Amino acid sequence: MMSLPLLLLATVAGLLALAFWWLRPILQSMAAELAATPQRTREVTPGLADPDCGIGIALMASAADGGGGSAPAKPKRKKPTGPDRRQFLRNAWLASWGGVAGAFGLSALGFIWPRLGGGFGAVINLGSVDTVLGQIADGGGRLEYPAGRLYMVAYDASKDSDGVYAELNGESPAMAIYQKCVHLGCRVPWCETSKWFECPCHGSRYNRWGEYQFGPAPRGLDRFPTEVRDGNIFVNTGQVVTGPTRTTQALGEPAAGPNCNG
Ligand code: FES
């Protein structure tokens, strides 16, 4: 089945193709009109009246008449050349709408592009299980992955006796936690001393598994589904899973030291 980003990309490409197909005859007609516009050249023979000038025409007519004093011929009104003004305005209007549609298409493409490139919204391959667990240990208890707006923490299924996170993590020994605070959306940093996630905006605190500990947050941090495939850990950042309730304490781990936001 086609994924959402590819579906959006195909839709944008289809709209652009449709806009181009729709505007092509108009652009062709504009080009043809411009090409058909005659260059105005004025050739004036020295000593003779200008044939483009109404007075000149009258004088020539008078000369052809023998200068006999008859009434001068009325100069003929010239038919305007070049593109018709109404048609030109219509084409310009359509061309501007074509520009707007093109800009919209490019913006939409820019919006979904990170999802195709492994950023937030994509299924991200973080590397082998051993590599990820090693990086979590090196990070003092968490691995930060800014492009996916997530933290990885070690997940021990034996501590999750009720299986609260079992379905979310599958066979993965690491759990993915969304960095966005569930109170009002600030990015929640890691506190090195407490080994908790502590929000600097209004003081919410979450333990290493992102479970609620303190502050105005209504629940634990949201998270992403994780799975192990071919020995690598994949995180689906296109699917945000609502965090556990305030009372969920599967980890039950107190702060390792002083809090950072207190
Ligand atoms: S946004 Fe984090 S506590 Fe308010």
From TrEMBL:
It comes from the Bacteria. Its cofactor is [2Fe-2S] cluster. Residues 176-235 form the Rieske domain. The chain crosses the membrane at residues 94-113. GO terms for cellular component: membrane. Pfam families: Rieske. Keywords: 2Fe-2S, Disulfide bond, Iron, Iron-sulfur, Membrane, Metal-binding, Transmembrane, Transmembrane helix. The keyword Metal-binding applies. InterPro entries: Rieske_2Fe-2S (IPR017941), Rieske_2Fe-2S_sf (IPR036922), Rieske_Fe-S_prot (IPR014349), Rieske_Fe-S_prot_C (IPR005805). One of its GO terms (molecular function) is 2 iron, 2 sulfur cluster binding. Residues 64-84 are annotated as: Disordered. Iron-sulfur subunit of the cytochrome bc1 complex, an essential component of the respiratory electron transport chain required for ATP synthesis. The bc1 complex catalyzes the oxidation of menaquinol and the reduction of cytochrome c in the respiratory chain. The bc1 complex operates through a Q-cycle mechanism that couples electron transfer to generation of the proton gradient that drives ATP synthesis. This is Cytochrome bc1 complex Rieske iron-sulfur subunit. It comes from Euzebya pacifica. The lineage of its organism: Bacteria, Bacillati, Actinomycetota, Nitriliruptoria, Euzebyales.
